[in-house]
Amino acid sequence: MRHLRHTALLTITTFFIIGCGPDSPSDSKRLNPAASVSTSFESFTVEDHGGMPFLSRTIFFDFYQGLEAAEGEDDKGLASQLRTRLNVLMGLTQSDEDPTTYVAARNPFDLLHYLINTDQIATFNDGKRLMRDSLESGSPENYNTPANNAIIRFTELAGEDGSGPGPDQVWIYPLLDWKTNFSQLEPRTSVVFRSAQFIARPPEEDDENPAEIQSAFWSGRFDGDNFSATGYNRPNASNFNATGRNFGNVDFFKILTGSEYDTLFLNETSGITIEGEEPVFICAQIDYSRDEVRVAYITDPEADTRGTNADPSQCPNVGSTFTYSSEPVTQRQ
């Protein structure tokens, strides 16, 4: 199949800057404060607790709900199948009471974002403070872990039997990057970009059900005027892409400004059926302003998935298509 190689919304350039410790004082040009992290947790699972809506800020929360067909509409059985696929991909625990949502998430990026949003890791806080200082001074800055030979490593203690954590109980992120960007035209605007990369450890040879994500990358764009050095910052747009072990590749675009929409691409996929056929390519796009889901799919492995749509964040005009009205989703995050 001639697949469209979806490029991330945000091109990340690594600046190799001589770094210093995270407690360095602010200068007219601060040095990169990125530092290694090695932290253990009882569990990697993210759940709502303490009255705080942590799950509503996970990557697929809106999309998971937005797939639900409105009364009388026909989704051709796709919504439930996509949720099942996301459960496997992202370690989601579907709600028994409401199958249109989930009550827990265990995956590398929802955990990383949770830790950034809740200010639990000192060097992550340094990164956010560097961005806020940069926005206030108008001088571009960059927090970048590879430039300082820094590695982020999380270890899950749950289920250890004395032999050490298993492959899916050690999550390693070779890249975490923040940078600011300022427009050169008036009115002058500012943007913060954040990106991160995850690479899984190889599973045990006798593991019949390894974690689906083999490697993944996330990038997001934030409005500089509203960026905070503490707590949660909502991205204006983000892109998540992952290489799976068994079900192909995933690309997910989330647009939270203007014409709000989410788009999921499944490439070289299998195991999902639509009207008796098993597609190798599926694109599902939710238009939240119109409460509508558009689906495009291809069953021919040799078919071109690119189409003529120049916007890689929207479904191409290829293959078989259908649309259905969906249940509304409010207060997207």
From TrEMBL:
Residues 306-333 have a biased composition (Polar residues). PROSITE patterns: PROKAR_LIPOPROTEIN. It comes from the Bacteria. Residues 303-333 are annotated as: Disordered. This is Uncharacterized protein. It comes from Marinobacter confluentis.
